[in-house]
Amino acid sequence: MRRKDREMSREFGIEVIDRADYGVVSMIDENNEPYGIPLSIVRDGGNLYFHSALSGKKVDIFEKGHRVSVSFAGQIKVPEIYSKEELNGIMEDKSAAGVLSSKVFTTEYESSLVKGTIVPVEDEQEKLRAIKLICEKYAPTKMEYFNLAVESGLQIVNIYKIEIEELTAKRKKFDAHGEELKWGRME
């Protein structure tokens, strides 16, 4: 990681994964071309799970057990550190113009990157647990219908697992005084 001052802990990275709406799985396809796809992913311990159709390009790639990277983006926003009056003051004092690029025209973000190998899940109990976790994450208010849905639905999907072999996390965020929180500082 180039910006070690923005590196965060493994625990922070796991929080980003758990809050993320989706993860982008990136790999090399059968033609040695880059291929990335956003997927609904859930974490259980040291594993990531997702489902797919029974056939298609990604299934062909996944069945070969490729190494992949999975990126997750957490909260992203443009910081609101300065008032309009303070920004007008910067416009009058050109020596402070560096503030514009470093603290105004920038983005606060948090991200997590996982590396691992995709494995098709064959064990029926693990498949059931994984699809239940996926449904609890993405359709929590519908879980009373889960048992009936899974009776027919589990046979028409593939479930895959990625063991988290490497996990890195990064964040750019400013505190209430407009100073960047670096080296894992939380507040």
Task: Give the secondary structure arrangement, pairings included.
Blueprint: E1 7-8, H1 10-19, E2 23-28, E3 34-39, E4 42-44, E5 47-52, H2 57-62, E6 67-73, H3 84-92, H4 98-104, E7 109-120, H5 124-138, H6 146-153, E8 158-163, E9 166-172
Antiparallel strand pairs: 1-9, 2-3, 2-6, 4-5, 5-8, 6-7, 7-8, 7-9
Overview of this protein structure:
The protein is of the alpha+beta class. It has 2 domains: 4-75 and 110-171, Roll (Pnp Oxidase, Chain A), CATH 2.30.110.10; 78-107, no CATH class. Helix content is 29%, strand content 29%. The chain is built from 6 helices and 9 strands; from the N terminus they run E-H-E-E-E-E-H-E-H-H-E-H-H-E-E. Strands 1, 2, 3, 4, 5, 6, 7, 8 and 9 form a 9-stranded antiparallel beta sheet that branches. The chain is elongated.
How would you summarize what this structure contains?
With about 190 residues, this protein is an alpha+beta fold. The protein has helices at about 10-20, 55-60, 85-90, 100-105, 125-140, 145-155; strands at about 5-10, 25-30, 35-40, 40-45, 45-50, 65-75, 110-120, 160-165, 165-170. It folds into 2 domains: about 5-75 and about 110-170, Electron Transport, Fmn-binding Protein, Chain A (Pnp Oxidase, Chain A, Roll), CATH 2.30.110.10; about 80-105, no CATH class.
Order of helices and strands: EHEEEEHEHHEHHEE
Work out the helix count.
Answer: 6
Please give the number of β-strands. 9
Determine the fraction of residues in helical runs and give it as a percent range.
25-40%
Strand content: 25-35%
CATH fold-level name of the largest domain: Pnp Oxidase, Chain A
Shape: elongated
- Give the CATH architecture of the largest domain: Roll
Number of domains: 2
Terminal CA distance: 22 Å
